[in-house]
Each structure stands twice: as structure tokens, then as C-alpha cells.
């Protein structure tokens, strides 16, 4: 059996799992075929079914702590995607409590009626389980999601994930204030994988916690190297995105503080970018953690501001010091009066509350000038610079010419 890119391979005749043993994973069959065997008390063995491409085996063991209910052997050479118990537990933990309860009830009833189900499946009016499973799998993206999650896990271990940095510009002085660190993944076979694909999957699988720890450590170290290379007299900062999964970790603050203290930057040079959704999902836990970060000197920024659905009271409740206006409103300012007025309102609100304002997605000088007239502090977007590698950032800063953006 070999392990490559989180896949498992079995030869024909291999025992994949054994009845009575504790199971810690399930498999989705990508290719090949297996047989399911029940070992009876008298020592005899009975085949109760087969499974092939597009179906799952060993699923019950990752839902509860019960032993395997059957032995599974490969009939043909097989390639499989692994689903670990930890992965499943993380996904189940983030679902609605009702779903958690129903999952447990369904499993219990399935175990109790396993024998009857095997009898019924032989009826002409009852479709084979494998056909039902394959039909369900075909209607979802679960196989592709698990494949990407497994490969993303491997990419983290093999240093195949990079950070790119997009400059954040002072709209009045034209100088670079700092950067937003953005995760990038270039797959060895598939090429560039969009963050819009792998970030949601990393969040659902819980891998985002490990990824965020890595990103914070790398971003802090990179900022130290960038400042050393360009010799800026004014300290810059780096913004790192964090999710609700990160804040659910009891040692989140301690790990982050340790990361900053072991780097060559000050706590004031790192900003935590979070979404309004995070504040809604974990209000009490988030407030305590964010306050600890602010007390340590770190900055707190609300990303994609204006797209949420919560009460603005959280601007008072949480220790926020920066609002980042969502790019969709910036790009629509010259097309829609409502977007223009909304941006003006956000800038005014932020100013009245003593908050810093960053406009995202600025692509034209007209947008930059209009934001400056409104009193917006800073901006980022392709007009100034796209997200780029650390070395490209150093080269950019070496040739940067601050210029006031005048109307």
C-alpha cells in the first residue's frame, strides 16, 4: 500500500479493513472494486455486497466509536480518497446541532437494521445500496471537495502554498502603509487553484486553522525581511485573514502572540482581518480574543465591510480600529448613486467613530481621487499594485515614488 497525495492504493486481495477492529477513517473509492464480508460467530464468512467507483466504505466508524461491522477486501486494484475521523468530526462540529443529532440517530438505526436491509436489497423493488450511493455522490461535489482538502493538506506540508502581498496605500501621502497577505496555491498538476475554491474547503475541513498559523508566521517573517531590504524609516504593517475556526481554538491568542514575539516586527505591525460573520457566530469568544489582541498592540480590521447583515452596534461592542470597504461598492461608485452614497456613509461613520478606512478593489485613478475627496484614509487595488511575491514587493518598494493623488 502506498500513500501519495493523501490517496490510498490497495492491490487485489488486500484487506482494507477488518470486522471488529477500531476504525479511524472511511474511504471513497476512486477506482477498483471491493467486497464486503460478514464474519459469523461460527467462523464462516458471507459476502453481503460489493462496492466500486463513486461509493464509500467504512463510514460508520468515523461517526461513532464502535468497531468495524464488516471486513472489506479489494477484488480489483483500488485507489481511494481517505476521510479521517478528525476531518469528519470537524465538519460535523460546525453543522447545526439538529444535523448532528440526526446523524447519530440514523447511524444507530442503521446498525440495528443492517441485517434486514441486506435482505430487502435482494428484492426486485429495492435498488442496490451501491446504486443509491453512486446516485447521491453524483449529485454533490463531496468527492472533489475531499480531494482538494487532502491535496491542500499535503501542499501545506510540502511548502507548496505561498503568500502574495498587496500594498495598502495612504491616499494623501501616496506611500505604502502595509500589505494584505493573501494565500496562493499553485498545484503541481492542475496549476493555479483559485482561493475562492480552496479557502472555503479549507474552512469546512478545519484545515484553515493550520493554514492560518502558517500564514501568520510567514507574513510576520516576510514583513521583517521586506523592511530590512528596503530600509524604510516608517514601520509598515501586514494584514492576515482569520476565520471563525481560528477563533474557536482556545490557544489562538497565545499562538499568535508567540508568533509575533518570535519575529522581527512589533505587535502593532500586524492586523487581524476578520469578517462580520465571525463576530455574529462567536460574539463572546471573539470579543475576549480580539480585546486580548488589541491590548497586546495588534490591529483589528473588518474585511468586506458593508456586505454583512448584523447590527452596526458591533462597531461599538468589539475593539475594531479599521473598516475595509468591500470592493463591490467601490467599483459601482460611478455607476450607481446608491453605491456612492453607501461609500460616503461608511467613510463618514468610520471617521465619526475614530476608525481607519481602507477601500478595497480600487482599479482607476478616478476612484482613488473620489475616495480621497470623501476623506478615505487608504486604499488597495490593481490601480496601485496587484498581489505579488515577497521579492516583487521588495523591488516595487525600491522604485516606489510617493505622489499625492490630487483631484
Q: Please, could you describe this protein's structure?
A:
About 30% of the residues are buried. With about 400 residues, the protein is an alpha/beta fold. The strands form three sheets. The protein has an eight-stranded mixed beta barrel, surrounded by six helices. The protein starts with a strand and ends in a 9-residue tail after the last helix. Helix content is about 40%, strand content about 25%. The chain has 16 helices and 18 strands. α6 crosses α7. The protein is elongated and about 85 Å long. α12 links the parallel β15 and β16. The N terminus is likely disordered.
Strands, total number: 18
Large-scale geometry? elongated
**Contiguous uncertain segments of 5+ residues:** 1-5, 119-123
**How far is the first residue's CA from the last residue's CA?**
67 Å
Q: Tell me the Rg in angstroms.
A: 26 Å
Question: What key attributes describe this structure?
Answer:
407 residues; single chain; 16 helices; 5-stranded antiparallel beta sheet; alpha/beta
Outline:
The chain has 16 helices and 18 strands.
Task: Summarize the helices and strands and which ones pair or pack.
Blueprint: E1 3-4, E2 7-10, E3 15-17, E4 25-31, E5 33-39, E6 45-52, E7 56-57, E8 71-74, E9 78-84, H1 85-93, H2 97-112, H3 114-120, H4 129-138, H5 142-157, E10 161-170, E11 176-187, E12 191-193, H6 195-205, H7 207-230, E13 237-241, H8 244-247, H9 252-261, E14 270-274, H10 276-281, H11 283-295, E15 299-305, H12 314-317, E16 322-325, H13 327-331, H14 337-352, E17 356-359, H15 365-374, E18 378-379, H16 390-398
Parallel strand pairs: 11-13, 13-14, 14-15, 15-16, 16-17, 17-18
Antiparallel strand pairs: 1-2, 2-9, 3-8, 4-7, 4-9, 5-6, 5-8, 10-11, 10-18, 11-12
Helix pairs in contact: 5-6, 5-7, 6-7, 7-9, 7-16
Amino acid at each position: 500500500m502506498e500513500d501519495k497525495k493523501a490517496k490510498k492504493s490497495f492491490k487485489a486481495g488486500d484487506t482494507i479493513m477488518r470486522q471488529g477492529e477500531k476504525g479511524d477513517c472511511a474511504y471513497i473509492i476512486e477506482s477498483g472494486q471491493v467486497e464486503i464480508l460478514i464474519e459469523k460467530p461460527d467462523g464462516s464468512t458471507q459476502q453481503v455486497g460489493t462496492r466500486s467507483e463513486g461509493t464509500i466504505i467504512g463510514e460508520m466508524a468515523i461517526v461513532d466509536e464502535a468497531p468495524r461491522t464488516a471486513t472489506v477486501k479489494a477484488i480489483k486494484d483500488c485507489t481511494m480518497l481517505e476521510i479521517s475521523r478528525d476531518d469528519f468530526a470537524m465538519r460535523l462540529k460546525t453543522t447545526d446541532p439538529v444535523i448532528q443529532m440526526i446523524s447519530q440517530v440514523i447511524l444507530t438505526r442503521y446498525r440495528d437494521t443492517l441485517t434486514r436491509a441486506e435482505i430487502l436489497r435482494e428484492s426486485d423493488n429495492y435498488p442496490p445500496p451501491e446504486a443509491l450511493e453512486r446516485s447521491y455522490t453524483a449529485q454533490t461535489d463531496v468527492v472533489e471537495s475531499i480531494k482538494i482538502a487532502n491535496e491542500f493538506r499535503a501542499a501545506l506540508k510540502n511548502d507548496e502554498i505561498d503568500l502574495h502581498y498587496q500594498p495598502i496605500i495612504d491616499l494623501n501621502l501616496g506611500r505604502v502603509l502595509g500589505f494584505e497577505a493573501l494565500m496562493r496555491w499553485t498545484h503541481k498538476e492542475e496549476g493555479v487553484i483559485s482561493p475562492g475554491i480552496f479557502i472555503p474547503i479549507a474552512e469546512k475541513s478545519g484545515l484553515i486553522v493550520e493554514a492560518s498559523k502558517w500564514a501568520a508566521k510567514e507574513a510576520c517573517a516576510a514583513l521583517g525581511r521586506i523592511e530590512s531590504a528596503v530600509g524604510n524609516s516608517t514601520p509598515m504593517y501586514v494584514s492576515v485573514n482569520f476565520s471563525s475556526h481560528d477563533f474557536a481554538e482556545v490557544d489562538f491568542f497565545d499562538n499568535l502572540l508567540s508568533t509575533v514575539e518570535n519575529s522581527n516586527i512589533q505587535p502593532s505591525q500586524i492586523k487581524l482581518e476578520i469578517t462580520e460573520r465571525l463576530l455574529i457566530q462567536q460574539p463572546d469568544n471573539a470579543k475576549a480574543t480580539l480585546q486580548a489582541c488589541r491590548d497586546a498592540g495588534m490591529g483589528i480590521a473588518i474585511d468586506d465591510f458593508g456586505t454583512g447583515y448584523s447590527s452596526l452596534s458591533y462597531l461599538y461592542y468589539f475593539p475594531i480600529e479599521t473598516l475595509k470597504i468591500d470592493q463591490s461598492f467601490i467599483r459601482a461608485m460611478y455607476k450607481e448613486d446608491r453605491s456612492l452614497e453607501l461609500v460616503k456613509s461608511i467613510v463618514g461613520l468610520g471617521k465619526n467613530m475614530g476608525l481607519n478606512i481602507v477601500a478595497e478593489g480600487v482599479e482607476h485613478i478616478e476612484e482613488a481621487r473620489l475616495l480621497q475627496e470623501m476623506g478615505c484614509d487608504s486604499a488597495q487595488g490593481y490601480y496601485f499594485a496587484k498581489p505579488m511575491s515577497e521579492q516583487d514587493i521588495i523591488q516595487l518598494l525600491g522604485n516606489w515614488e510617493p505622489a499625492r493623488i490630487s483631484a
